[in-house]
Amino acid sequence: MTESHQTDFTCPGCRARYKVVRVKAEAGRPHRPVQCLVCKKPLAATDGENILKYFLPTGPRTQKRVEKRAPPKWGS
Question: Whole-prediction pTM value?
Answer without folding.
Answer: 0.64
